[in-house]
Structures are given as C-alpha cells and as structure tokens.
C-alpha cells in the first residue's frame, strides 16, 4: 500500500494543472467566475446546481454526510441523472454497470431472484437505501423515479446500521421542488422494446409544488429466447413550504412487473472437466431452458414517504424521513440443473426455484445537523436516531419436477429437455401447490453521531459512531427441518479519518471503518436471513483501511480520485449455548486500489473508474488462499460524452471485468469480458431532442451472473434504441 500512497500524493500534487492546460478546458462556470461557496445545511448544499452538474456530484444527499465529496475520506461513486440518461439505463442493474467494482449476483433457493449487487465481491443486497432510509424487500428496481445513485464503498455500518459490510447504495428520488419543468420520453428499440416515461413538476403556489414521475416499459431480452418483462410505475409527490424555514414532502411509489424470469444456461457436469472444474456449458447463449407454461415472475412495490426539514437558525437543521413499504415477489423460475451429470449426456433437468413473499417495513430517521465552533476548531455535525421494523413472509411453491436423473418419463412431461435445442413452448402438465410457510421479523434502533472537525484549514478529522440494537426472530422449515428461533444483538460501529488539504479543491486522507452483520440482516431477501443453522452466530465483523487522494481540477469541473484499501472479514462465530462451541467459520481479506474521474474537461464529460482487487480466503481450510466468489481482479467502467456542438453530443461506454469464480474452491468460473456501448443525441429545437443508443455494440455474449452450483446467466445481446425527448 505504501507505493500507492506515494502515488496518491503525486496524483494530488499534479492536480494543480498549468494555465496552458487549464485554458484548453471549458470550465463548468464562466471564465473568471469564482467557485460559489456551498451553504452547508445538514451536510448538503441548498442549491441543486451545486449538488449535481452533469456527470459531477460535489455534494452528497444524505444528512449523515458532514463534508463535500472531495473531503469525504472514502471512495464514493455518484451515478448522476445525466449518466442514467446518456447510457439509457432503465433498471437499477443497468445503472450499476457504470460503477467499477460492482458485480451482480443471481438468486437461488435461499436468495431471492431480485437485485443482488456485490461491491468488491461483498454482498450488498440488504444495504440499499432510499433517501437515506433502508429499503427492505426483494425487488428489481427501476430508474424512472431516481435522481441519482450514491455508492459508498467499504464497510459502512456507522452510516447504515446493521450490515453494510460491502458499503451502502443510497438512491436519491425525484421529489417536488421549486419551478415548473417537465420531460416526456418515448423510446422504441429492437427486441420489441417500447418505453414511455414522464417527469413533470409544477409549482402551484409560492410554497406549494407537485411532481409526477411515471413509466411504462415492455420488452423482450436481447439475445435470450422467450425472456421478456412488462412493467409500469408511478411516483407522485407534493412539497409544502418551499422557500420557508419549514418544508414537508409527501411521496408515494407504486411499481409492478410481470415477466418471464431467467436463470440462464447450465454449467458443465461435475467431473466432466479435469480437476472438477466447471464452466458454463458450450451452448448457444440464446438458449432458454424454462417453460412458458410454468414460469413467471410478478413483483409489486408500494411505499409512502413523509419527510420534513426545519431550519432552526445559526446553521442548524432538523429533518426527518419516515417510510412505510410493502414489497411482493412471486415467481417460479426454471433452474437449468446438473446435479446428476445430465449435461455430460447432452440433456438438462428443468429444476425449479420459487418464491411467494411479502415484506412489510417501516423506517424512520430523525436527524439534527449543523455547524459549531469550539474556540478555533470548527465542527460540521450530524446527530440522529433511526428506528425500523420489518416482517417478511414467504411461502414458496411445491412443484412436481420429476426425476433429476432425466429418465424417459421426464422427457414425456418435459421436466427434462435437450441441452442443444430446448423448446420454451413445450407443454407441461405437472402440479403446483403451496409449500411450507416461512416467517421472519426484525427490529432495530440506532443512535449515531458524525463530525467533520476543522482543526486547521489544511487539516480535517472525520469521525462517526453508531450504537445499534437489533432483534430478529423466524419460524419455518429449512431443508425439511422445522425451526423456531430468535437472535438479539447490540453493537458499536465506527469510522474515522484524517484529511490533509493542500488546497481548497484537493485532499489526501487515511481512514478506517468497520461493519457488523448479525444474522437476519437481509430479512426477506438473501442468504443472511435467520434460520435454524445460524441463529446463535455473533455479528460478522468487517474492517476497512483506506488511504487516498481527491482533487477537483479545471476550476472544480472534474473530480479525480485514487485510493488503496484493505478489507478484512472475520468473526462469523457459532456461539451455541448448548455445546459452548465457538469455531471461526470464515475469514477473508481483500486488498486493492481504485482510480476514478467524474465531471467535465472542456467539451468532454466522463464518469470512469478502474478497480483492482486481490482477494483471498483465510479460513484455514482447503480453500485457504483462493479468490473470493464474484470478485474479479480487474474491473473497468468508462462512460463518456463529447459535446460536438451546442446541439450535438456523442458518447459511449467501455466496461470490462476479468475472470471470476462462483465458489470458495475456485472450481466454477466464467471468463472475463469487454463490452462497448455508443450513443448520440441531437437537440432538434430548444424543447425537442432525439437520442440513439446502441448497447453492447459487439454483441459480446458473456456471463453477467454466475451462481454456484448450477447456472450462469448470459448478458443481453446487442440492442438499438431511439428516444424522442420533449422538454418544457
């Protein structure tokens, strides 16, 4: 890490570009115009322009953040609304492809078929937040109501409470605000894509505004036979008190999907390849092994959010966000299984994974933030209390899928099919019945404090601490064994950093942060749910050390960042009160570095990053020294655009990940890939524009999701899109 630390120092030192170089770039502001000072209220700025400018975000939305991005001592990637638009990112997964160091996980038996982001190989399924409040419930999110996405990398329990071992992903939503504006977009594309979206804001009175975002989307999946998705959603909001010391916003979100889920293609049979290695089967990546007569997925999300903010004066702000949400995820999906050597015989068993879950949750975050001087030392403080409750019920289906060894009878009822030429329209006459009911509930209460301390103008100290009490219980049947268990834990999580500022727009930092992940953290969603086998585990501890530097150049228009990190995962301990055994179940270490750039240099806008991760298991087993699952060593994401003229813009993206494994033994793997996108837009008039996107230009067919032990899900193929955008 010492070499990269020296590199970070040199990087920041070189950020003071010469006048000749600076003159080549068109600054984000008029030449000679001073950079406006940010009015800091609860860790964010008052003006929208200071928060977000094209591909650059200078401030973060959460009231828990007590410094601008350049002075925050950790890597934070912000996917702005402009990035979402230029890349034609229509889903949460689409948007995350633009962020380096993120891979996508696939659902299985105990993990829902839904959004499963992994940050540097660590699961962040339960660490997605909306406007700073945890978003509970398995779902596949849309972007129609999203203003931007903030990705905090590295353990973040001080920020997020329980879990957050990978980091935290905060979604900032579209809410009613001052002004009158609107956008309507109609998109048509190959593979029968049709998408209509609107986003309109109207100021009804001096202090009252309403906003409505809505979408309808229907499309087949490029390069995948029979896979399709239809979805729609609305998100109205109303804000009262605009321009006054007290504002209040009431918002509602409704979103539904109906489609054919996809678990991709099977892996090679066990022992089919030398050494027990397994890779995606050598088949046409268009092949779909599911059954249209049986497979389906329907999801529904309803949530209501109330937030208020009151300016107390003297730099202090009191705010609160309260949200009730209900998420439904209901599906039967074909798992192209090879648990009995079928693939080696050119056949596939159409196994089934299913879910019929409903998650109800309520969360509230009360925060007090402001500035305070103690003698010559200045403080930017954030103090708060969080409370959350959740209840999840799942009753998966009992589906008759025949014999996994694929005897002749299994072909007659189409529970088995050809490896080379599966037919999704095969008839199916098997039975479906409700399965065993599973229930889990959880509650947590946290208090926290964050402070950015200005010791000297050139020296800042960042500190944060949180106390969390987390209780969970569950009842059901797992693998035929009934359980009725509960777990209670309370713990401290904290973070700290020292920031040296060689100039106003540059920083060098060293930081530490940890996370605590108790059983039940991903209630209703993932593999960390409480059950009979893990009820007595102590919270897993994850620690992050990071050294880095950031600098805004070209008059603050372009943010550069570089950081080295080390993440240690350990302390999954089985503290069984009956046996007294306390074995360590898992240890791992990740070391690496990340380079990033976001913003504008002259006519060129860029949002780019490269992450290198060297991961290894350190648990003393036969897998000791192996790479962590779903952790490619190299990951590159570059999104850029060039403003050719005031009305014409061209751009594109380059995305790469190296080889990765799906299992601790490193026997199941998928090759790396390169993907290239392109886009162009032209403003026909001041209020009407057109944009063309070509996704995956080279039609690269790589595995985007790899799952141990059964399957891999291929990427989407090439797709062309044309969008007509009307604005007022």
TrEMBL record:
List, alphabetically, the InterPro entries matched: Beta-barrel_TonB (IPR000531), Beta-barrel_TonB_sf (IPR036942), Plug_dom (IPR012910), Plug_dom_sf (IPR037066), TonB-dep_rcpt-like (IPR039426), TonB_sidphr_rcpt (IPR010105)
Q: Signal peptide location in the record?
A: 1-22
- Would you say which domain of life the source belongs to? Bacteria
Boundaries of every TonB-dependent receptor-like beta-barrel domain copy: 241-697
Q: What is its main location?
A: membrane
| Family recorded in the similarity comment | Belongs to the TonB-dependent receptor family.
Keyword check for NAD, yes or no.
no
Compartments annotated for it: namely: Cell outer membrane
Topological relation to the membrane, as annotated? Multi-pass membrane protein
Chain ranges of the TonB-dependent receptor plug domain: 69-168
Pfam families listed in its UniProt record: Plug, TonB_dep_Rec_b-barrel
Which keywords does the record carry? Cell outer membrane, Ion transport, Iron, Iron transport, Membrane, Receptor, Signal, TonB box, Transmembrane, Transmembrane beta strand, Transport
Can you say what this protein is called? TonB-dependent siderophore receptor
